[in-house]
Amino acid sequence: MSDVLQTIDQLVKSHRVVLFMKGSAQFPMCGFSGRAVQILKACGATDLHTVNVLDDEAIRQGIKSYANWPTIPQLYVKGEFVGGSDIMMEMYEAGELQQLLTT
């Protein structure tokens, strides 16, 4: 495994809720990342760790390989890939995301 994938793996496994996004939770740099943060806040996620992929090109490209998912943002809960903002919205509307975040 390359160094960047190991770094991503460590981030995913060392935090309960990790969002790889463009920008920060306080200042999202794209609409999809902003929507992802809003969804997580609506779910009451308090232990959110965000990673700004714009700060590191290797992470920005590596995260796409890590989960074999081509877009950002990407949400991980308890070390497992959940999905991007569209999947997060579908899960939120179905009540599944809230349940995942509280268990």
TrEMBL record:
UniProt keyword annotation of Iron present: yes
Keyword hit for S-adenosyl-L-methionine: no
Residues annotated to bind [2Fe-2S] cluster: 30
InterPro entries membership: Glutaredoxin (IPR002109), GRX_PICOT-like (IPR033658), Monothiol_GRX (IPR014434), Monothiol_GRX-rel (IPR004480), Thioredoxin-like_sf (IPR036249)
GO MF terms held by the record: 2 iron, 2 sulfur cluster binding; disulfide oxidoreductase activity; metal ion binding
Keywords, in A-Z order: 2Fe-2S, Iron, Iron-sulfur, Metal-binding, Redox-active center
Superkingdom to which the source organism belongs: Bacteria
Glutaredoxin domain sequence ranges: 17-82
Family matches, as Gene3D superfamilies: Glutaredoxin
Family that this chain belongs to: Belongs to the glutaredoxin family. Monothiol subfamily.
NCBIfam families assigned to the protein according to its UniProt record, in alphabetical order: Grx4 family monothiol glutaredoxin (TIGR00365)
Name of this chain's protein: Glutaredoxin
Annotated organism of origin: Aquariibacter lacus
Gene: grxD
